[in-house]
Specification:
Layout lengths: L3 E6 L9 H10 L4 E4 L6 H17 L3 E5 L2 H6 L4 E4 L6 H8 L4 E6 L2 H10 L3 E4 L16 H11 L4 E4 L7 H6 L4 E4 L1 H4 L4 H9 L11
Parallel strand pairs: 1-2, 1-8, 2-3, 3-4, 4-5, 5-6, 6-7, 7-8
Amino acid sequence: MLAGLYLVLDPSIRPDRPLVDVLRQAAALGVRLFQYRDKLATMKAAYTQALVLRQAATELGSCFIINDRCDLALAVNADGVHLGQDDLPVADARRLLGPEKLIGLSTHNPGQVREAEELKPDYIGFGPIFSTATKADHDPIVGLEGLRAARASTTLPLFAIGGITADRVGEILAAGANGVAVISAILKAQDLEQAIRTFQRPWSGPSRPTP
């Protein structure tokens, strides 16, 4: 499961597009990994939105991760949490969530990747691979060379993130990523279905039926 397209659902990217509709459409097209991220909402508003998304993901057999907040992940019984470098330590998150939940960790440089190898989250995010407008204060761009170096430093499942467009997925996978985490390139797409299908192509064998 920890491979392929990982769709990050952030309401600030396209406020007019209901996240639950995006999740349902993406799941119908084969996406199985979703993360809910909202840096601006109150806890109550985030809980209300996360609960709707959690229920939809459960109905559709998809994995639902909460960004940053272990308390919110527990409140909606999410499948796990994705932590940043300044969030709760991995070991403490594991104690809170238990052994069955997934824990992801964002990494941005070789030192953080090596540290993650010791901390043993279930997967890591690594980036930004390319320039991204999603985060104004993002870490330095690592590029494909940085991605190759990260892959050489860990055996953990690795998702590349940051400025990824569908035409770059092939080279990102060739550099060692197990999957790509995507936000704007899908959420802002005029044709949501076409954008998802295009991102899915590298994992679609020639004999795989169209969903």
